[in-house]
Amino acid sequence: MITGPTWSQKLRDEIGKAVIGQDAVIERLLVALLANGHVLLEGMPGLAKTLLIKSLGTALGVQFERIQFTPDLLPSDVVGTMVFSPKDGAFTPHRGPIFANLVLADEINRAPAKVQSALLEAMQERQVTIGGHTHPLPTPFFVMATQNPVEQEGTYPLPEAQTDRFLFKLLVDYPTAAEETTMMQRWGQVTRQPALEPVANGAELLELRGEVDKVHLSPAVQGYILALVRATRALAEPAVGKKRYLNFGASPRASLALYQASKAIAWLRGLDYVSPSLVQDIAPDVLRHRVGLTYEAEAEEITSDQLIAQVIKQTHVPEV
What we know:
Blueprint (H helix, E strand, L loop, with lengths): L3 H12 L7 H12 L3 E5 L6 H12 L3 E5 L6 H5 E6 L4 E6 L6 E5 L6 H13 L1 E4 L2 E4 L5 E6 L12 H4 L2 E6 L5 H11 L14 H12 L5 H17 L10 E3 L3 H17 L7 H12 L4 E2 L1 H5 L4 H11 L6
Parallel strand pairs: 1-8, 1-9, 2-5, 5-8
Antiparallel strand pairs: 3-4, 6-7, 10-11
Helix pairs in contact: 2-10, 8-10, 9-10, 10-11, 11-13
């Protein structure tokens, strides 16, 4: 049987042929695969977000499709449409790029709301409706989206209902000086391009999810997860003489996401149980896009990560 560290390392080694650094982000992407969740990556242009997801799809050996989101994109460009055949006078469904195992929604905040909403049924129900008929999506199925945090002109911010459907929101940062130097030395020549090979497959991934389910999560840690999520809601409650920094806290979907992601990262690291430290490690990625900052918080330049760190610090840690 494949172990978590072995499976993780073979994928990391293959992805590393094209992407240098970003170890923490790669680990979170693998956790999302095991936890059957979607991922939103946010970072400045040129940080290899698109290359990272494309490399993951190749290394995983699954069908990969990229959708470049633009203001003139239509829902039918994503899910598909009915096509008329003059030969027999019938309409037949033409499936869109959403019918793939791994879908890259590139610059998702550049598309209008009607296109973003076309992803809702696919992400949550893993099915789409074309011409009044429901079509199941392939298994496994993931949406990994990217967005630029600084460009606001010509963008459409994702609504809360959409962001809540992402298991993680990952912040992609600049590489270190050493990583950037290696990048220039390896890919500075125009004729040298990374060539990746599949080292896993979708059937293997589905089988490994059964191993993730075997990871033990004690009632005490389950209570800790619940306490963290509910503490974000407490911050959103009005209180006399106290500044309110959140409009709303994390939803019950956050509790499920933290539960599943904690078990997945434990298995990936070769552990057979979930500790509170693992929950603390992964909590910011699960919660940062599920809380809404007030105007007061934005005016004082308080981030969701700072509030989540405060929640983690003030919540009692159980002994396990």
